[in-house]
Amino acid sequence: MRFLLLFSFSFLLSSATFSFSTHGAGILEILIESGSPVHTGFVVTFANKSHVTWRQLKADTPELLIFEDFDLLSSLLMNVTIHDNITSNSVVFSTGNKKVVDFDHLPLPYTGLQMKMKCAENWYGYYCHNHCVVKNELRCDEYGNPACAQGYCGSNCHKSGSDCPVFGNCSCINGGECIRRISESETICHCPTGYWGKDCKELEMYRQKRNLTTNFGGNLTVPNKFWNRTDIYQLFEKYGEKSRTSGHQDAQTYQSFGKLAEICVLIWLVATMGYYIVKCCGELEKNEKKIVETSGDEKKKTSEEEKKCILIEMNDM
């Protein structure tokens, strides 16, 4: 019986371990600035799961928050709520087009706010579901299709030199890289974040205009200092790169609250099963002890009765 309980416990543990849902490669970045120090909470809700955190914002200092693991195929809309002790404001926007979420005006004490969706490293496409790895002479276009670096060609980009046509019609600027898709003979410019177009000369000004909805608090607003900035993509890159290279936590990454809840449920299940296993094993040991004691008493009683019978027989003689 004990082995059966332990087997059931092990099976439950292994089943629970592999029951977590697969997380996606979508990332939300929130760049925010406050005019005064404020303790601010952020609740990001997507596909019925919430990412939750608090952050102490310093006065006139941009802060970058990064929320990961969004499966963009599971939903099209995301809800972000920003709240403190005085105000609470929310916005709903589309996640698929990777546009910057832009606001004309913001409620005090906030003076700057932008939000942006992007794909995790090595993931591409509208829903961040196409995997492609850049290495050596291999490159990836914006959709995750494999391509060859300048000067290389072939099905695996293994050819170079005279075997490959000259990239004569490719003149990328602003840090763009000339590549050739493996499935095509035409060369294109792979543009860095913030630029687009044939030669990467156009600033990427694709934005979603949104207004924050006030849940509670005052309605006093100020112009968004990040609004309509041509370098907004570079600003995101600046604070993201600063956190990666300096070790200073200007950007902090937060995982899914739903994942934490799953872990808590697993711990509860393990603790509950452990309790009942210990309890059942204790009951079994008690029952076994009682059986042994009862058996001993019966044997003792039988032995005494036998002695009495022998004495009676001897007296009769």
From TrEMBL:
Residues 166-201 form the EGF-like domain. GO terms for molecular function: Notch binding. Its main location: membrane. It comes from the Eukaryota. Pfam families: DSL. Residues 1-19 form the signal peptide. InterPro entries: DSL (IPR001774), EGF (IPR000742), Lag2 (IPR039178). Residues 117-157 form the DSL domain. Putative Notch ligand involved in the mediation of Notch signaling. PANTHER family: DELTA-LIKE PROTEIN (PTHR22669:SF10), DELTA/SERRATE/LAG-2 DOMAIN PROTEIN (PTHR22669). This is Delta-like protein. The lineage of its organism: Eukaryota, Metazoa, Ecdysozoa, Nematoda, Chromadorea.
